[in-house]
UniProtKB/TrEMBL annotation:
Membrane found in the keyword field: yes
Coiled-coil zones: 61-99
Protein's organism: Microbacterium phycohabitans
Domain of life, source organism: Bacteria
The keyword Ion transport appears for this protein: yes
Stated name of the protein: ATP synthase subunit b
Lineage: Bacteria, Bacillati, Actinomycetota, Actinomycetes, Micrococcales
Membrane topology: Single-pass membrane protein
Localization (cell): Cell membrane
SUPFAM superfamilies for this protein: F1F0 ATP synthase subunit B, membrane domain
Length: 186
């Protein structure tokens, strides 16, 4: 700015003074020509390329958004399917658990029933065996008691009781009296 003032002061007074803030006319013309050339090049070359590039980027972004939406829908469908399968698996596990519990109860009931019937059979068999042994012991005891009674009776009476019919009658009478005295004591 100082240079412009010095130049203004140095110019002769008769010439028309030019405004220091406005450029010279030839500068304006040549600047305008360069601007028009650059504007035409930008308008014809750069702007279409930029528009094409922006369109391509826009299409790529929209394609990626569409792919992301599709991937999200697939993920949601997979999640729903997984959730359904998980619920089905839990239901089946519950059914299997319930079935196993029922089967266990049936097995325990059958085992108890089998054990009870086996115990009843063993008890009945034991009672039958005990009764048979008691009968055998009773018969054997009667025989021994009869023999002893005949011997004792023969010793007491002083004669031998060799007659079997008579000896049996004496033994039977003695045992009947013995049983009657036991019943009366009870």
């Amino acid at each position: 700015m100082l240079n412009a003032l010095v130049t203004l002061a140095a110019e002769p007074a008769g010439e028309e003074a030019q405004n220091p803030l406005l450029p010279a006319t030839y500068d304006i013309v040549w600047s305008l020509v360069c601007f028009i050339i650059i504007a035409v090049v930008v308008w014809r070359v750069a702007l279409p390329r930029m528009a094409k590039l922006l369109d391509e980027r826009s299409a790529a972004i929209e394609g990626n958004i569409a792919k992301a939406d599709e991937a999200q829908r697939q993920a949601e469908a997979a999640l729903e399917e997984y959730t359904a399968q998980l619920a089905e698996a839990r239901r089946e596990a519950g059914e299997i658990r319930e079935s196993a519990t029922q089967d266990g109860r049936k097995i325990v009931a059958e085992a108890k029933e089998t054990a009870a019937s086996e115990a009843a059979r063993i008890t009945a068999s034991a009672h039958a065996q005990i009764e048979a042994e008691r009968q055998t012991a009773l018969v054997q005891l009667r025989s021994e008691v009869g023999t002893l009674a005949v011997d004792l009776a023969g010793n007491v009476i002083g004669e031998t009781l060799s007659d079997d019919a008579r000896a049996n009658a004496v033994v039977d009478r003695f045992l009947a009296e013995l049983e009657a005295s036991e019943k009366a004591a009870k």
